[in-house]
Amino acid sequence: MKELKDVLGMVADGLKSFAEGMGMIAGKVDALAQSLGDMETMPPAPKQKAAKIQPEKVKKATARKPVTVEAAKRSAKKTAPKVMPKVMPKVVPKVVPKAAPEKKEAATASSRVLEVISDAGSGLDTSAIMEKTGFDKKKVSNILHRLKQQDKIENSKRGLYSKKG
Q: Which of 61, 63, 84, 154 is the most exposed place for a label (fewest CB within 10 A)?
């Protein structure tokens, strides 16, 4: 309970300093508006006083009733997770893929790198793959590693990659 009072005290202090800061800002805005009004020879806008927050009102506004054990138990029961009923899985109809066009652009970065390697024939090194794809070194290295794991490419010589098969 003492911790709660301390926290509320800190919040009240923060609100007080916030209100003071807003008062200072309002004063500066009024001064700026008046100086601009003087420059344009227009009558200045009426000044408004910044509202001051009185400490007594802050403490009253932030004071709360203490929470009892019974009230805490009731609120815990209300927020308990509800069990969802079991639902039958949705049946998705089988989709027959359409015939792919003869030559289409690579959809993924991996397929783009594989296409560049297969077009080269004899094998490419990492820098050549980077140059042809525009990918950075880390991305090319990761893709080459993944393609080797999938057994789609092989090292023809040290540092040279070619399509398997």
A: 84
